[in-house]
Design brief:
alpha/beta, binds calcium ion, elongated, 20% strand, single chain, binds ligand C2E, 19 strands
């Protein structure tokens, strides 16, 4: 008799819990409670009057028919048995049980999945955290752990050290990946053997760059020497040179900033004459500041003609007395504030920043003009070598620029010889060789500069398309040390002879070197023994002397031919 409009429900033979469900549905209040009853009543919750009447009516019904006590708003239905309940709500119970089982199943699956993922993550972290080659940390983890270490040892000064292999690229190319990997492994071992476990952490952050974060110490040179010696002992035939940069004793500076400074210091530990260890201090900071200024000053310097060319004479030592054969053009910067700046202080920076082309072109232009001027003055062509930086080789306008210069100054292409460093050759030989071949075919003379600094092997020498070989000063300096260095130079001379190319020895400073080189068959010498690089006017004095010594057309022709 339930009806949506009903204010009162009368049920017979109905269970109380059915009644209470109905009541809830229609917003009624149950009056009867209990188990199965013959009659049940319910009234609207708002109908308090009707509720009272019905309570009275139930009093009229014979007590034998009323099996439960009347109560107002009572919810007791717990007398229903579990089995009865299940029977009555089988579908519902089954649904609930199924849902619970499903949830348990899902939870089990999730636990298993989480466990599996944790295992995968662990394996992944192990592989990314540790560099498999050296056993040191990888970049990101190193900085993370260094940061933690800094927090752990708050107040204790820590150093950031960067270590790398000078010109690793060349080491890699010339010795192969396997040897290079062994070198890197040995550096890793070296680092671990120096520090005690608690005091440091270290990682490999680039192919050949190692970072160490450690308690402050002062024996940086000792660390560098120890690892360097390990390498030299194990790889006797490989020329490896380590460089180190240090940002010492910082308490407040964050780790990444410390490493930035250590990297800068490491990059400054370059070159044969510079130290291979640089500790970041105020002079490094000044240097950095200066470099930034120099970069800004470059355009002005070109415009205001602040670059000046010095000429270092080259002498043919096989003739007696030695004869002037030509020169190398070396740039100096007459800086309005800093005075004369040597190329070592700005060329590497400009090379790194990719603006060296501007300087080089300026030097070629001034040199070509000077050769033309001397040609007018003396009637001979003095061949002068100019430096061509690595980036310049790949300039698509290179040939055009050079041709234009030669044309504008009415010079033979042999007059301006091009020096290309050994490292430029080795590092990009596949791309460089065709460019060089084209220049040579056009008549330009190519000189291999700094031979002996870049670990090149004698076997690669014979495959290089060059016209002249320039032996680096470091080679000449070693000549005094032992016989094996002398033998090495002799071997280079012999290969050059086989290739039919002349050898210029750079940096010859004394008579003994000169004598030895002459005996070995070296053709030309450039070095302080004869002269430092000098301004054009001073070079003219040498030319005048030379002209006095060798007056005559035949000799003039000789100088000319040396250029070819
Ligand atoms: P480099 O091309 O190897 O030039 C030879 C350097 O050795 C010159 O240094 C020269 O002064 C020095 N030298 C020559 N003989 C001796 C000697 O007997 N003893 C000693 N101790 N040194 C000697 P400089 O002029 O300071 O030039 C340094 C480097 O700067 C050059 O090395 C070259 O790589 C670069 N450079 C110079 N001018 C230019 C340029 O116009 N363009 C480019 N790209 N690089 C240049
Ligand atoms: Ca040179
Ligand atoms: Ca050189």
């Amino acid at each position: 008799v339930a009806d949506e409009e009903a204010d009162c429900v009368l049920l017979s033979n109905y269970r109380y819990n059915n009644l209470s469900r109905l009541c809830e549905k229609y917003g009624l209040s149950p009056i009867a409670t209990g188990k199965s009853v013959d009659y049940c009543f319910a009234v609207s919750k708002n109908e308090t009057g009707l509720y009272s009447i019905l309570t009275k009516v139930t009093g009229i019904i014979p007590s034998s028919k009323v099996s439960v006590a009347l109560s107002s708003y009572m919810q007791e239905n717990s007398h229903t048995s579990v089995v009865g309940f299940i029977k009555e709500h089988l579908a519902l119970v089954m649904t609930v049980v199924a849902a619970v089982l499903l949830m348990i199943l899902l939870m089990l699956c999730r636990i298993l999945w989480v466990q599996k993922k944790a295992k995968i993550d662990e394996a992944l972290i192990a592989t990314t955290e540790i560099d498999s080659l050296t056993g040191l940390y990888c970049k990101n983890f190193l900085f993370e752990y260094a940061d933690r270490m800094r927090n752990k040892y708050k107040g204790i000064p820590m150093d950031a050290i960067v270590l790398d292999i000078d010109r690793f690229h060349s080491v890699n190319i010339l010795n192969g990946t396997e040897i290079s990997n062994q070198i890197l492994q040995l550096i890793g071992e070296g680092i671990r053997s120096i520090f005690s476990e608690e005091d440091f952490i270290a990682g490999r952050v680039d192919a050949d760059r190692f970072c160490i974060y450690c308690w402050h110490r002062n024996d940086y040179q000792k660390i560098l020497t120890l690892i360097q010696n390990k390498l030299s002992e194990r790889f006797t035939n490989v020329n490896i040179r380590l460089r180190m940069g240090v940002m010492p004793e910082q308490i407040t500076m964050d780790v990444v900033k410390m490493y930035d400074s250590a990297h800068v210091a490491c990059d400054m530990s370059k070159g044969q004459n510079n130290s291979l260890l640089t500790v970041f201090d105020s002079s490094v900071r000044d240097n950095l500041w200066l470099k930034n200024h120099m970069l800004n000053d470059l355009h002005r310097a070109v415009k205001n003609k602040e670059f000046e060319i010095y000429y270092q004479p080259q002498y043919d030592i096989q003739s007696n007395p030695p004869r002037l054969r030509g020169a190398e053009a070396l740039v100096r910067w007459n800086h309005p504030v800093q005075g004369v700046v040597m190329p070592g202080n700005f060329i590497p920076l400009f090379e790194e920043k990719g603006v060296i082309g501007e300087v080089d072109k300026c030097v070629w232009k001034m040199t070509a003009r000077q050769i033309a001027a001397w040609k007018n003055m003396y009637g001979i062509t003095v061949p002068v070598s100019v430096n061509l930086s690595q980036a310049g080789i790949f300039d698509p306008k290179l040939e055009g620029t050079l041709d234009e210069l030669m044309k504008a100054n009415k010079l033979e292409r042999t007059a301006l010889k091009l020096e290309i460093t050994e490292s430029a050759y080795i590092q990009n030989s596949e791309q460089v060789i065709p460019i060089i071949e084209r220049l040579r075919n056009k008549g330009y003379i190519i000189e291999l500069d700094d031979f002996g600094t870049d670990y090149s092997s004698l076997s690669t020498l014979s495959s290089m398309p060059i016209d002249v070989l320039k032996l680096d000063r470091s080679f000449i300096m070693k000549m005094h040390d032992n016989d094996s260095s002398k033998r090495m130079i002799k071997m280079v001379m012999d290969i050059a002879k086989d290739m039919n190319i002349p050898v210029i020895a750079e940096g010859v400073e004394d008579k003994i070197e000169l004598k030895t080189l002459k005996e070995m068959g070296c053709n030309i010498v450039q070095g302080y023994y004869f002269s430092r690089p000098i301004p054009a006017e001073e070079f003219e004095k040498l030319l005048n002397k030379e002209m006095e010594k060798h007056i005559g057309h035949a000799q003039n022709k000789e100088i000319n031919r040396a250029g070819k």
